[in-house]
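Worked Example 4.2. Read the sequence first, then its structure tokens.
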Amino acid sequence: MSDLKPARILAIETSCDETACAIIENGRALLASTVASQMDIHARYGGVFPEVASRQHVLSIIPVVEQTLVQSNLTLKDVDALAVTRGPGLAGSLVVGMNMAKGLALGTGLPLIGVNHLEGHIYSSWIYNAGESVPAEPKFPLMALLVSGGHTELNLMTDHLTYQRLGSTLDDAAGEAFDKVARLLGLPFPGGPSIQKASENGNAKRFKFPRARLDNPYDFSFSGLKTAVLYEVQELKKNSKPLPIEDLAASFQAAVVDVLFNKTIKAAHEFGAKEILVAGGVSANRALREVFQSQKEFKVHIPAFSLCTDNAAMIAAAGYYRFVSGHVSGLEMDVQPTWPLS
């Protein structure tokens, strides 16, 4: 994809429990971004409460869009197209963002681009803050590890918007496993940050938790690892021993990071990738970032911490490349689109 035309995209993201809006220029330069998090609201439930999430989106969506426009010193007349997350995600949450985007499109006449949430995570690695030095963009062919609360998979990107899925999770995604193990250990939601914090003073070699071996070497499975932690916890409690929370957390985290790193490096070698991209909520994990950044074989692109979790900037970035390539969805968009898109 060459000779990309300049364009500003305003995007809306409401796939789960963050209400977000952002404006991206030319697919990379972030002009403004607003994220209204519901994390504190859902922490009391130990996970996201879908009905509560959708109601909170209704309250937040208009102020979030207005604040983004104010922050950017732009109006809707300065925008070339709109983008919105069309799935996957919580249906009640998605419909709030989609209806807001549809209303703006009908009211302004701007084209509307439907973006797959997973594709958005991948394009978070193209983004930089406007006014700062421009970093090198990822080079194709690119091995993309997408690791989040609901998805863990490897995709080979040979060009913009062109994906070959090599493997995905057969059961629990990595982020989901973090949440479930955190609950087993009595750590607060969300599990990722809690496990990371507990691991800081833990012995990652104390417990030999399993690394699943699968027929497809690029598929993932974390259900067995989660169960191994459960059995270890039950055994310790059975013998009236205090739980070594830090060592359990560190050993679990090491197992997850080991699997993600080794499979990605192996795939990059086999499929001739020039560079590696790691994206999704779990890409914020410090141990995962360090192991990828410490290896010298491949240049690795990992988004800034603020772009790892759900945000609208990534939807705007992906929307830009769909807009300039002509892959623009109409107003009647599938709420749960297939993936990967090609």
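Now turn to a second chain, presented in exactly the same format:
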Amino acid sequence: MHLSPSSIAVFKQCRQRYKFLHIDRLGDKYGKPRPYFTMANHVHATLKEFLSLQPVGLRTTATAEELLRKNWRRYRLGFRDKDDELRWAEKALAQLRSFVNNQDVGAQPIMMEAMVESEISVGVILRGRIDRVDKEPDGTLHIIDYKTGNTASGIDWEQLELHALILSKRLPLPVSRISYLYLGNSTMKSTAISADDLRQVHWRVLTTANKIRQEKEFHPSPSPWCGNCDFISICPSKPESDPVVTAFDQLEFWDDSKDDKG
């Protein structure tokens, strides 16, 4: 069984969607390009290139803008029209400028945009894409996840806890801190994580894996999220009228079990 932070989140949110996506493999058939995925993809790629530049003096606002424009030309999918694309492009530029002006551009991450996996138990492989890992002065690791959406009112640490669990199985250095960096306002939300925390995370993953193995029905769970679901047209709980699509500009819910962020 292959699991990832996104697949675990999908299973908890809607088991029918999990079946469509991870068992029936209908994502390529029904998936639609989303402007927030496109923007986030380009921002992540730009930050990886930006923090790889040597010497550090090359890491300027002008360079970040140039890298974004180059990446943006790779693909431009999911936008309603030119004005919509321009709005998202300006949002991306603003976030990169904020990063350069407010963050340590001299940082030397030891890992960026890395796809990692580990067999955390016999027959259960956990994988995900980690945005960035820094080495702290004490030799421990700090996992940072970039968020291009709005700052969350309540923080769910599970994604980063799972990333920490993967690294704990792969690297000799312990993970001591996990953080979400909200690029819109350059706010870092952090929390410490310990070996005891990771043992609890490990247990939760195995419990979820067992639930997935035992699941037979995969019933849908109607919610406000349905209006943003790619599978609404084939869902057995599809409403008679089209659902209201909630504004999910802040959503970064790509499938991190794949090798790309699109």
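Notes for the reader: The chain has a mean pLDDT of 91. The chain is about 40% helix and 20% strand.
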